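Quick sanity check, Membrane protein:
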Amino acid sequence: MILVVVAALLVPAVVILIWNYAYKKRGVLGFLRKYPDAELRGAVDGQYVKVTGVVTCGSIPLETSFQRVPRCVYVSSELYEYRGCGGKPANAKHRFFSWGCRHSEKYVADFYISDFQSGLRALVKAGYGAKVAPFVKPTVVVDVTKDNKELSPNFLRWLSDRSLSSDDRVMRLKEGYIKEGSTVSVMGVVQRHENVLMIVPPAEPVSTGCRWPCCLVPTYIEGLILMCEESQNADVIPV
C-alpha cells in the first residue's frame, strides 16, 4: 500500500519534470511574446518594460564572422559536430549519436531602438560586458555531411582563424544576427540620464512565473532580453 502511494506521488512529479525540461524554451518564448509592450513616453525611471521597434546601430556596429553581414547589433557563430559510434566528443557533455557544440561566440553592442507605440528613441545598453539574454534563431550557413565533405576556402579560413581542425568530421556552422533595420523586442529597465533615455539590464533575474495551464514551473532569465523572430533572409526596414 505504501509503495502504491509513493508511486502515485512520484510518477506525476517525474512527468512534470520531464515536461518542463522538454518545453522550457517554448514556455519562455510564450511568456516573452505575451508580455505587454509599454509606452516609453509614460515609463518612469526604474520601470521594467518591454519595448518593440526598429533597431539602429550605435557607435560600434558588428559584423558576422563567416557571412560578413555588416551593420549588426548582435551576432553569433556556433560550430556543431555530430558524434557517431566512435567519434571524438565536441565537448565534455557530448553524447553519442547527437550534435554537440564545439565552438561558440556571441557579441552584442549598444544600439538604439525606436519604439513603435510612442515613436521615442532609446539607447539600449547591451554592450561592454552587459548581461544579455538573446532569443535569436540562428540559421545553418555551412553543412558538412558524410556525402559532402568538400570544405570551402572560406570555411577552412574560418576554422584556421580559431585554431580549429577540420579533420574528417560531420559539422554544421550556424550564424545568428540582428541587423540594423530589424524589428526587435527589448525587455529591460528604463533609465534616464541627462535627457538620454536608456534601457539597461535589470539588477535581478526576471521570472516567467508559474504557468499552471501548461504545467510549467517558473524560469528565471538574467540580463537584458533581446528577441527577434524575423527571418534572417527577410527584408529589413531602411534606416
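Posting the structure with no commentary besides this: The chain has one domain: 19-228.
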